[in-house]
Queue: 4 jobs
Job 1
Amino acid sequence: MSNPVEKVFSQRQTVLETVRGARDVFGSTKTTRKQYKAMQDALGFALLYGPEDLRVTVEATLTEANRRELYFIPLWQRTDEETLAGKGA
């Protein structure tokens, strides 16, 4: 276990906190694209390195996050357009 990511995500508490944090991220309409990507990456690490008894929970959370991403895409596009309009582009 020389990989520092593996050390962190092999801890049960870290995986549970990651799942809880993911639900906060995809439950908020203020979530940015960058935050969403970071949440998906963290869930991926939890799936790879986490305890086996939590694997189903992490898989279910990752699946739900991927489905909910479809609802965020129009929101992010609107935000991108507003940002561009504000810059005079």
Job 2
Amino acid sequence: MESKLSEALLNPVWASHKIGDEYAMEGRKGLWKIAYYPIFEDGKSKEEYAEARALVEAVKPLVIAGVVGIDFVEVPMRYLSRV
């Protein structure tokens, strides 16, 4: 696993993105920030993804029926645009 992580971090996309950076996401409202990266394989099947992915969280807390929560989404980096 460590060698896969090292290899994934060599992808040049990670040189320009950092945890906490804010983005707009295609097809979604609001601002999002990177919470965790890189995600390079499916956690259940262990199948490697063909492109760079990150876990992002909504900058503005999610409120449903008066309950405040955090909205996390795993997305390919191509859907994110730096704000």
Job 3
Amino acid sequence: MTEHFNSADKNLQTWVEKAKDPIDKLFREKEALAVLASKEDLKASEADFQKLLVTPEMLATKYGARAAIRRKLMEPVDALVDKAIEHIEAQLDEKLANETDDEKIEQLQLKADAIIEKIVRELDNPSILGEWDAGEDSVKPPPRGWLLGNMFARRFLSILVAEGGVGKSAVQYAQLLSLAIGRSLTGDYVFQRCRVFIMCLEDGEDELRRRIQALCLFYKVKPEELKGWLYLSALTDAKKTGKLMQLHRGQPMLGALGGKLEAMVQRYSLDVIALDPFIKVHGVAENDNEQIDMVASLLIGLAIKYDIAIALTHHTNKLPNAEPGNANRGRGASALKDAGRLVYTLTTMSIEEAARFGISERDRTRHVRLDGAKINLIVGRPIRWFFLESQPLGNATELYPHGDEIQVARTWTPPDAWNAVTDDIMNRILSDIDKGMEDGNRYSEAANAGGRAAWKIIQRHIPAHTEQQARDIIKAWVDDGTLRRDTYDNPVTRKKGVSGLWVNKERLRPKPKAEDEELPF
């Protein structure tokens, strides 16, 4: 039973300890009784038992003694629970005193109910490993603490993985600015306004100021909107910042940074801490899974302890294949990826994507896509695109008359190849494909179709479409059965069994026309 007591939930003990002397006294008595119950010989002195209001008559047998002690253990439970509930409700009233957000009020009340339920359950039957009976669990857990879309959530680690120079800081800073001002700049839903701390460990104060001020200029955010909501730090000197963990004689040791981050949370009531980049917050071997897991566990522990979100930017490995949505792209040990519950990648637009969207090579590298790489908390996540703008900072001097232009990220929506495909145009395209070529040949979707390429019919009717967009439409029609493949004998080359395309008329749903207008199908 001593083990049971010592393994009680830390959250429970924290709440109970705050109830001061009455509950502390009862817990000390409970622990002392548990110690007696654990004695195999049960030969404690009569004075010891009388002190605990356990009479010698209760100790007639070994098992009777244990049962008596267990009954005695339950006597102070009602008083203990009453005190605990009283304290919790007082804390809740204090938190709700100035709270006007109905959703947050409901979340706080649910949290208080869950804690009370846990206290009752734990004292009624102390757990061994924090277990509970699901059939007796009447507490509905509160919703996850989402803050910005599915990017950041309280008590969880978010990681954005990208190569250097792709724009990960530009994208993440825009997301964090959304939280600080309470309105979305990146298309992500803002669940609540948050106090944000950005710690940049790669660039100095001036560069961090340039980035934040450029974002404010681009999105027309006034400085007074940030006061008390966004805090910045740019300390590149590890001696001043310290590390979460560092090696001492080859062994990982706790550093000073963790304590400083806790102090920041307490001083400014932070909701989000963003560390940019991860490699700079620790001094352990980055390829050692055990050591990186220790660092990640420290961050997760901090997030859980203070009910905050922690966001990291993370560099990629040296492999040439920057596959979008691949969580394994991050440099170093995989333990960081495993610890994160919201892992995203940011990738420059590929040559093939640029061709599909009609983007020039000059602008291709300014388009970046955000993909969910490892998202344990939700199902699915669509691809998001950003365009990297150049924002003049307005800091011209005599020596630098043009001042600085700083990279900022804005959302970008790819052109939809189907927007121009009206029912009328679709019917004309399909009519041309089904009619075939003048020499009797059939059109084909094959990559090497040459003059028989069906995608050229798309461009004939929609000249603005790129080759890739036109190919995508033909492929979609083949995949959904609008176009069917069949073989025929080439009348020009005399080759038999050549593959060509026909329209599957049963799959068409043409737009209704006037009675005197003849439909092609």
Job 4
Amino acid sequence: MKFTKTAFRATREVHHLLDESDPLYNKRCQVHGQLQKFLYEGIYTNHRYKSLILDCVEKADRTGKPYEKTIVLGTKYKSATVRKLITDFSDDFYKFTGYTPDKILKILDCSKSELDNIQSDIAFWGHANISLMDMFSAEQLEVIENLVVDDDCGVFALDECKKEIAILHWFSLPKFRQALCIEEIDMDKVVYLLKVVQSKGTAENRALMGALLCEDLVAMAENEEEAKLFSHPLI
């Protein structure tokens, strides 16, 4: 699909046309800044030298100078190559997000709920930048690797993998961090329990903690409330 302007130019145009008298001015500025930051990060493209090029794009926006001239000076690419790169990056952005330059310009006059939706979209796009080490520890990945019989696992639609996604979700590092931040969790007690496991307590307590961490606590529960506390939706 061909556009009359690139995503970069549309985003710069939003910056110039924001109206301070608009009741939603601060909100529009916030959304514009988040979208611009996402454009600079380059998650949406696999170009080998994207960091170098997008640093030049950011510099051009900061100084108000033309993109083409700034990138030529910063990379030594020829003008024709730079024009193609800008278009290619913008097209990659569109393919990744579905946001056309015209949709970017809607930041100037859309409603608060529509601005909220754009912010939600930007947050969602950011998840594409995750790595395995952001989500799981090296030990967790090693356990999975040891359980895999054949590396050629095939290809599946995500909606075919709901139970598997649920398992990875519940045992991911972000979910673990979130769980530890629950108000009812006393981190002093967590640290104490880890010390017990680490041979700081009595042998009896270490054995008990080993059982509590490894065994089926639902089966061992003395009442329904305990069973519910130790239950997991898939296990």
